[in-house]
Design a protein that fits this description.
Elements (H helix, E strand, L loop, with lengths): L1 E9 L5 H8 L10 E6 L13 E7 L2 H9 L1 H10 L3 E10 L6
Length: 100
């Protein structure tokens, strides 16, 4: 399984909710096994730049993730959200199977 995590911050003057609604366009893409967009609770006591939103998705494999990113809705979402965001940091990793 591939876990896909992306952190976003809203640009000055843009509401976090507006960015979240734009990112929710991705929920319509059929290639993920799980997809959600949530607000960062910002409970970390260490000061520094903080993300406003987190996109979390799970994919069966790298081919499913690639199909997700190749979907036309992904491009439309990027075009819509990019001008509203300040920061974007993405990470993809292979989940470790349970030991036992």
């Amino acid at each position: 399984m591939i876990r896909h995590i992306v952190f976003f911050s809203a640009a000055d003057g843009v509401s976090v909710e507006e960015v979240r609604e734009g990112l929710m366009m991705l929920a319509d893409i059929p290639h993920s096994q799980h997809f959600e967009v949530g607000r960062n609770l910002q409970t970390d006591p260490i000061a520094g730049p903080a993300a406003d939103l987190v996109v979390y998705a799970e994919f069966a494999d790298e081919a499913a993730l690639a199909a997700f990113k190749a979907h036309p809705t992904y491009a439309a979402c990027t075009t819509h959200v990019r001008p509203m965001r300040e920061m974007r940091i993405a990470a993809d990793f292979t989940a470790n199977p349970p030991q036992g």
